[in-house]
Amino acid sequence: MENCLFCQIAAGQIPAAKVYEDDQVLAFLDISQTTKGHMLLIPKKHVRNVLEMDGELAQTVFARLPKLARALQQATKASGMNIINNNEEIAGQTVFHAHIHLIPRYGLDDGLQIHFTAHEPDGSALSRLAEQISSEVRK
Ligand code: AMP
Ligand code: ZN
């Protein structure tokens, strides 16, 4: 897609520190290096985010993850890794070409902070919501 940064990187029109490439996907180092080795995995085909992926493209992209994650872990000797995907602006997406972040972790103050706020669960509301989502999945 014209004017898409990651399409341009996939096409080799903009330089990137490439890690892995085949005919379907590209992995390269994120320019922000939130932690050392922060890497992105993208499909070469332009889709906005995971919400726009079909199962086949998701299978192609996600199948590449474990090997890349292990390679990144080995190369950086990180203690662990967060694998993150942001969908839409409210979720922190800034580049609207689907991508998965692989962020090696070295310590609690290494540059990435994730905080899950727990809310008191309402059992019947949870069941209703689960049923609602379940019926959407079956459509
Ligand atoms: P997100 O905020 O989830 O959309 O992530 C977009 C990511 O793309 C950010 O972490 C940016 O640092 C990264 N990024 C932006 N421009 C480039 C670039 N030219 N090369 C590599 N990574 C980039
Ligand atoms: Zn694109």
TrEMBL record:
PROSITE patterns: HIT_2. A motif (Histidine triad motif) lies at residues 97-101. GO terms for biological process: nucleotide metabolic process. GO terms for molecular function: catalytic activity. Residues 5-113 form the HIT domain. The active site is at H99. SUPFAM superfamilies: HIT-like. InterPro entries: HINT, Histidine_triad_HIT, HIT-like, HIT-like_sf. It comes from the Bacteria. This is HIT family protein. It comes from Streptococcus chenjunshii.
